[in-house]
Specification:
This protein has 170 residues and is α/β, with parallel strands linked by helices. It contains 5 helices and 7 strands. The protein binds guanosine-5'-diphosphate (GDP).
Length: 170
C-alpha cells in the first residue's frame, strides 16, 4: 500500500486535511504512540486505490531541545517511509522561514513532492498561491481543508504520482 506523508510546519492544517480525507472515505484513524505528538495514520480509499496517509508533527523550531529533536526525527522517518510527500503551506500566512526549512529537508530526500497550498477559503486566496512556486516544487494544489475544496483535484494528482499498482482480482 502506498504511503503518503503529510508534512509542513505547525498550524498549516495537516490534521485538518487528514481528517477531511478520513471522514470522506474511510476507514480507520489510529493513534500510534509517538514522542511528543502522535503520528496519525489513516487508511484512505480514493477511486479504488488504498493509501496510507501519515500526518507528521510540525517541524519544531526549537531544534536544540530534546523534544524538538525527537519531533524532527519523527518527521524524517515519516518522509523516509513515504512513496510521496505532501508539503502543506498556508495561503493565509504565506511563506515563512520554517516552510523553507521543511522544503529543504524534503528536497534532500529526493522523494516526489506535491505542494499543497491550504487555507485558500476563497478564489482570491487561490490566486495568491503563486508565491509558492518559489519553493521549487512547481504548481501548488490549492485547497481548503476546512471547506473541502480542491481535495478531489489533489487526490487525482496523488494517484498520478504513484506507481501503477496491479488491481487485485477477487
Ligand atoms: P497542523 O498543526 O498542521 O496539523 O494544523 P491543524 O490541522 O491543527 O490546523 C491549524 C488551524 O488551522 C486550525 O485552527 C484549523 O481549523 C485551521 N485550518 C485548517 N485548514 C484550514 C482551512 O482550509 N482554512 C482555514 N481558514 N483554516 C484552516
Amino acid at each position: 500500500t502506498p504511503i503518503i506523508a503529510i508534512v509542513g510546519r505547525q498550524n498549516v492544517g495537516k490534521s485538518t486535511l487528514l481528517n477531511r480525507l478520513a471522514h470522506k472515505n474511510l476507514a480507520i484513524t489510529e493513534d500510534l504512540p509517538g514522542t511528543t505528538r502522535d503520528r496519525l495514520f489513516a487508511t484512505v480509499s480514493w477511486l479504488d486505490r488504498r493509501l496510507i496517509m501519515v500526518d507528521t508533527g510540525g517541524l519544531d523550531p526549537d531544534i536544540e531541545s530534546v523534544i524538538g529533536q525527537q519531533v524532527n526525527i519523527q518527521i524524517s522517518l515519516a518522509i523516509k517511509e513515504a512513496d510521496l510527500v505532501l508539503l502543506v503551506v498556508d495561503v493565509k500566512d504565506g511563506l515563512i522561514t520554517p516552510d523553507y526549512e521543511m522544503a529543504d529537508i524534503i528536497r534532500r530526500t529526493g522523494k516526489p513532492v506535491i505542494l499543497v497550498a491550504n487555507k485558500a477559503d476563497n478564489l482570491k486566496m487561490g490566486q495568491e498561491a503563486t508565491e509558492f512556486y518559489s519553493l521549487g516544487f512547481g504548481e501548488p494544489a490549492v485547497i481548503s481543508a476546512f471547506h473541502g475544496t480542491g481535495i478531489s483535484d489533489l487526490m487525482d494528482r496523488v494517484l498520478e504520482e504513484l506507481p501503477d499498482q496491479p488491481i487485485a482480482t477477487p
